[in-house]
Specification:
The complex is a heterodimer of chains A (308) and B (359). With 308 residues, chain A is mainly α. Helix content of chain A is 71%, strand content 0%. Chain A contains 13 helices and no strands. In chain B, 30% of the residues lie in helices and 20% in strands. Chain B starts with 23 loop residues before the first helix and ends with a helix. The chains are: A mainly alpha (308), B alpha/beta (359).
């Protein structure tokens, strides 16, 4: 505290007065692009985005076309690789790379929307529980406990088995499977912020509850939410892969990353590439999301510069 | 204290005679805020199926009056309920009983949604400048927020008003875009003061506004608070545990002990001739900045009693050097002599001593 005072009282000349509120977004973006891991992550996610939006541009083969004469071909750099099939083929002679690209759309779509669903429900519930406390808190906490008492995967499997594995169903079920943890993270963060004096100060100037929650509490817990959401995206990609692996995800012949790992599993002794290629892709995309979440959290913090 | 007072009825006629400031208040300024029988009990957590019957009696029946343009100092040890009292007056805390009349209107029964108008008139300066500012909002956003909430002016005029407020509290215009962590404690307290003044309130509750600051900064902030009162004619409730600070800024002072006011009077009166033994002990404990003067090690013995289960009779009797039997049995009322009121049997004003002689 003492050094804070000393440094602030003799503060350097003022920042340019031209700094307007919209400069803040640019500032955050500039900070984001300041580190190599973040840049690489952005590139990876950019590629993922392009794959998801226009897979037709990038595939080298029809991802659904089978060629039984070219089954389980290893990647092109291996001894028996075939030119043009960069990552080899699967058990039906379909090009692995093209299927990974084609599968991006479904995988990313399902994961992002699932996180959006669980985030929406979880942030809402967590804010209400943490801010209002009392009965609302007790009810929400019990609901969270009830849902968390079931093993996540088992719960999702059971519900998917009942309602059927359509894309919309998957998004909603995966989304709702994640809200309790989201709500707990948010509630915990709200509790640490709620009793700070600036919340009282907001009340004393007449701010409504909605305003206090959205303008004062939410921005101060945003970093926790962003980091958690980035982990959740990664987890949802895994969950989708798990469901596809178990045959409860998006149904064949539509390719998804998890489904491809599942398909390749049976032939892993004959051709490791069929399973490993989508596995590596999943790993890198998850890593990219996590790094980006970390970077975004730091960039959003006004005290970022001083902390380095 | 049970009867509801209508919007304009803040005459002291419904009050018990022993409690009334007969003659005292009429000489002072117009009352801006009057609190009667304010109580705040915090219930203790009960068992699984039943509510607890015990509670912490943080504020236990306080009457006070703040005149227009005056500063009422409120002193007491930590835990005596002075902050809770201040928070009730700005309606951050719900009174368990009693009423608050502001400008003749009863504001203690308003619901959260109806408080907006009151919030415009009564503001608060908080104790901790490091947590009372939202770290994610720039200074300009923080100071303009009250204006936005109350729909005052457009973006342009609000911007001008904020710059004006920055000038008033002694900050620079370039500070508009900066964030709280870039400021020192004293500067942050100036920001908090600017926020409190943004709506041109009539009353500001200052809850220990300088106790978190360096002594060298304290006087600057105190002078600022006094200058602003001169310029804008606001009233202050100035809460502090520091008697010298309170003496410096207050017109009148109320001393709290364990949820009750034990003595109240004009600053000069109270500091020159304190009547309550607690006030006397507090004043004796104020350090004198002169190494030649011998100071007592400890004036009071023991600690503050448990507010869950306060002692019978006068709350202060277990620590009081003057306590007599009556003090242990019977809670003394606030007894007035002129504008000086004291809650003590032994040092009661002469008029009461003849009427209700100690047993």
């Amino acid at each position: 505290m003492a050094e804070l005072k000393a440094s602030a009282d003799t503060m350097a000349p003022a920042l340019p007065a031209s700094e307007k509120p919209e400069g803040r977004l640019r500032q955050v973006a500039a900070r984001m692009l300041d580190s190599w891991p973040a840049r690489i992550s952005l590139v990876i996610l950019g590629i993922v985005l392009v794959c998801a939006l226009v897979p037709g541009f990038l595939v080298t083969h029809d991802p659904f076309a089978q060629d039984l004469s070219l089954r389980l071909v290893p990647p092109v750099w291996a001894e028996k690789g075939v030119a043009g099939y960069w990552l080899g083929t699967d058990q039906l002679g379909r090009d692995t790379l093209s299927r990974i690209i084609e599968g991006t759309r479904i995988t990313v779509l399902v994961s992002l929307f699932a996180v959006a669903v669980s985030g929406l429900v979880g942030i809402g519930a967590g804010l209400v529980a943490g801010f209002y406390g009392g009965k609302a808190d007790a009810v929400i906490l019990r609901l969270i406990d009830i849902q968390l008492a079931f093993p996540l995967i088992l719960l999702v499997i059971a519900i998917v088995a009942v309602v059927g594995p359509s894309l919309t169903n998957l998004i909603i079920i995966m989304g709702l499977s994640g809200w309790p943890r989201f709500a707990r993270v948010v509630r915990g963060s709200v509790l640490t912020v709620r009793h700070l004096e600036f919340v009282d100060a907001a009340r004393s100037i007449g701010a409504s509850r909605i305003r206090i929650m959205t303008q004062h509490i939410l921005p101060n817990i945003l970093s926790a939410i962003i980091v958690y959401a980035s982990f959740e995206i990664a987890r949802m990609i895994l969950l989708e892969a798990t469901l596809s692996f178990l045959g409860l995800g998006v149904q064949p012949p539509t390719p998804t990353w998890g489904g491809m790992i599942s398909d390749g599993r049976k032939y892993v002794s004959l051709s490791w590439a069929v399973s490993l290629a989508p596995g590596i892709v999943i790993a890198f995309v998850i890593l990219a999301f996590n790094i980006l979440g970390d970077t975004l959290r730091d960039a959003l913090d006004p005290q970022f510069d001083e902390r380095i | 204290m049970a009867e509801r007072v209508n919007a304009t009825g803040h005459e002291p006629d419904g009050r018990p005679p022993i409690d009334s400031d007969s003659g005292g208040a009429s000489a002072g300024p117009q009352p801006l805020l009057v609190a009667r029988g304010l109580v705040r009990h915090f219930p203790l957590p009960g068992g699984l199926f039943r509510k607890s019957e015990r509670s912490v009696k943080a504020v236990d029946g306080v009457d006070l009056m703040i005149g227009a343009g005056e500063t009422l100092g409120l002193v007491g040890e930590s835990g005596c309920g002075k902050s809770t009292l201040g928070r009730m007056l700005v309606r951050l805390d719900e009174p368990s009983a009693g009423e608050i009349l502001f400008d003749g209107h009863n504001i203690s029964t308003l619901r959260e949604g109806e408080l907006k108008e009151v919030r415009r008139r009564i503001q608060m300066v908080f104790q901790n400048p490091f947590s009372s500012l939202n770290p994610r909002k720039s200074i300009g956003d923080t100071i303009s927020e009250p204006l936005i909430i109350h729909g005052i002016g457009d973006a342009d005029s609000r911007h001008r008003r904020v710059l004006e407020l920055l000038d008033i509290v002694g900050l620079r215009r370039e500070h508009y875009q900066r964030y709280p962590h870039q400021f020192s404690g004293g500067q942050r307290q100036r920001i908090g003061i600017a926020r409190a003044f943004a709506l041109k309130p009539k009353l500001i509750v200052c809850d220990e506004p300088v106790s978190a600051l360096d002594v060298s900064i304290q006087s600057q902030i105190l002078n600022l608070i006094e200058d602003l009162q001169q310029a804008f004619g606001v009233s202050y409730l100035f809460i502090s545990h520091d008697l010298r600070v309170v003496e410096h800024v207050s017109d009148r002072v109320a001393v709290m002990y364990l949820g009750r006011v034990v003595e109240e009077g004009s600053t000069a009166d109270l500091y020159r001739s304190p009547r309550h033994p607690y006030t006397q002990a507090l004043l004796a404990a104020v350090p004198i900045p002169d190494p030649a003067v011998a100071q007592p090690d400890s004036v009071l013995e023991g600690g503050v009693p448990n507010p869950i289960d306060p002692p019978r009779g006068c709350h202060f009797h277990p620590r009081c050097p003057l306590a007599v039997n009556r003090c242990r049995a019977e809670m003394p009322p606030l007894m007035a002599e002129g504008s000086h009121k004291v809650r003590c049997w032994v040092n009661a004003p002469a008029a009461y001593r003849s009427g209700i002689a100690p047993g």
